[in-house]
Amino acid sequence: MAKKKKVEGEIIDTKAIEEKALNYLKTFIEDSERISQYLADNDKEPCWDGHLYLYDGEGKSKEHLQGRVPIQVKGTVVERFKTKKWKFKLERADLQAYLHEPTFFIVCQIKKNSKERKLFYRELLPCTVQKLLKDMGKKESRQTLFHLLPTDLKEFEDKLLVFMNNSRKMLSFANSDPMTMEDVIKDGIRNFSFVSPVKPSDRIQLMNYLSTHDTYLYANISKKPYIDFPIANGPMRFTFKRQEYCDVRIGDRVFYHGFTNEIKDGFMYVTVGGILTMIIPLEEKDRVNASVKIKTDSKYLKESIHEAEFVLALDKHKVLSFGDVDIKLGVNDNNLVEDLHEKLLCWKDLQMVLDKMHVTKPFDLTAITPNQIHLINILIEALVEGKRVKFRKPDNTILLFEIANVKLLSWCIVDKNGECAIGDFFDGAIKISYLYQGKERINASIYSYLQNDNLWSKIDNVDYKGLLPSAIKSVDENAHCLELLNLDVLAMLSAADTLETEDPKKRSTLLEECYKLNDWLLKNDLEGDRLMVHKCNKMQIIKRQRAFDENEVSEMSQILENDEISNIYKVGFCLLLENKDGFNNYYNQLTDDEKQMLKKYPIWRYAKDFGKQSN
């Protein structure tokens, strides 16, 4: 008598459903030259419906037999097919049996009142069963995720072969936990291995398989016998990525010195400079569907210019060369070409402005505001084309322009017609002077102006090449400028502290140039106590750059032992050496005025280590 069950008022003939499922599977595999089915229609086994025998494809006699796979087949009636994240209930008792006899579990969705069918599967290998039983807890059953079975018969044959070989490799570990990758690395690795239906000699197809199929990984451990141990958290899908080094040319111009080659999801992605990607299917029959994507989305000016020149050159020459290999390739996007041609003209003019103003900081095109576009055009006219421009009447001869992520210090002179000449602050066209002791006006180094408003940290167009020549020239004209130059060093140190987290690269450059200026002062400004001032400044510059070496520590220690050195300098060297006892000793001997003066200097930042920051 047929077994039946009642579901929501409807009587379901479960025997008929199972027969439909078995028949559909048999029909699917009946033309296979590698599979023979031994599936019973009225199977009485509690957990299996039989086996699928696998052969090498040369025949179905014993000498060609590769093995057999235990099979369980179930059927279920559905109103409509469910292919994504579909689950089927598995029983604890069955899973416990499958732990020691890995089973390929198949479920057939049978569309109600229809001949349509779809097969789903779950590979119940020991590692999978272990996890399912653990997640099940004390429950007797569990809804488990199943996957749509490939409709390609060869793909199914390969899947069974891989399952069978994984079963053999895992079976002896059914009662033990798989090793984690961390365990494997710690114990040492002889080699890795995996199961694949593809011959290892066919390298491209092997990578194609591994990038499109979930694969279990095994490790042969140095500290253990020659056994392949399953690695936990499988199966996994592989991606292969490598940087190739060769000249990538268009015409006579080398644009890049390498490219990225990545195999992922059955495709080879050849990426040049993050701008051009060739997408090539690894299956030879699909290679006609190879495609090229061009993406020009760099946020920085120089990179955008380079990308635009690359695309326009490719559009012109229509050949991309990788070393000695030429590939015919066009852009085939007239809108992109026209847009880049127009932008490139503007970008190059803007880059010329930045070059004339010594800006090395990457210019962020995405940070330009609508109000700044007019200012950019004015600077292009003034600095690139050499024109006088109509500009709002400036309140000062010296102006600070902010464009995107850079700040530019400039001079501006208005003629009688109200037109402005604009130039780079450091081009030598203007002079800076100050009133010395309320009597004499002295021409100073133009860089001394940057003491104002912490400009050393704010502006991005400092011409560092001119710093030392400007300093020397100012001293040659008037020795009193030495005092200003020392204040320049202190201003640069304060700016470096401001930039410590804000812009480390800019800070590094600033400290290097500060060291050069102070080194010149050490050799040329020896009057009174100023030699000791410059030595202290030298050491605090170094401390901001790196740890002291033995000679530097020795030099400062000798200064502390010299009774002729003023206590205020000794306090500074104790701060640099992190000598708390010495600091307290010398600091307590200072006058109140000396203490207040010391707190104004950049070196006082190191007092926080002694709890003196606000005392």
What does this structure look like?
With 615 residues, the chain is an alpha+beta fold. 38% of the residues lie in helices and 25% in strands. The chain has 18 helices and 27 strands. Strands 3-4-5-7-8-9-6 form a 7-stranded mixed sheet. Strand 17 and strand 18 form a beta hairpin. Helix 8 packs across helix 9 (370-384), helix 13 runs antiparallel to helix 14 and helix 15 runs antiparallel to helix 16.
Features:
615 residues, alpha+beta, seven-stranded mixed β-sheet, 27 strands
Beta-strand percentage range: 15-25%
Number of separate strands: 27
Distance between the termini: 98 Å
* Strand arrangement across the biggest beta sheet: 3-4-5-7-8-9-6
What does the largest sheet look like?
7 strands, mixed
Question: Ranges with pLDDT <50 over ≥5 residues?
Answer: none
Instruction: Please identify the structural class as seen in this structure.
Output: alpha+beta
Question: Mean of residue pLDDT?
Answer: 92
| Fraction of residues in helix | 25-40%
> Shape from CA axes?
elongated
Number of helix segments?
Answer: 18
Radius of gyration: 39 Å
Summarize the structure.
This protein has 615 residues and is an alpha+beta fold. The N and C termini lie far apart (98 Å).
Give the topology, please.
Layout: E1 4-7, E2 10-13, H1 14-29, E3 35-39, E4 50-55, E5 65-78, E6 86-91, H2 92-98, E7 103-111, E8 117-124, H3 126-136, E9 141-148, H4 153-170, H5 181-187, E10 189-194, H6 203-212, E11 217-221, E12 228-230, E13 240-244, E14 248-250, E15 253-256, E16 259-264, E17 267-272, E18 276-281, E19 291-294, H7 301-317, E20 319-322, E21 325-328, H8 334-356, H9 370-384, E22 389-390, E23 398-403, E24 406-414, E25 419-424, E26 432-436, E27 440-444, H10 455-458, H11 467-477, H12 481-502, H13 504-524, H14 530-545, H15 550-561, H16 567-577, H17 580-587, H18 592-598
Parallel strand pairs: 5-7
Antiparallel strand pairs: 1-2, 3-4, 4-5, 6-9, 7-8, 8-9, 10-11, 11-12, 13-16, 14-15, 14-20, 16-17, 17-18, 18-19, 20-21, 22-25, 23-24, 24-25, 26-27
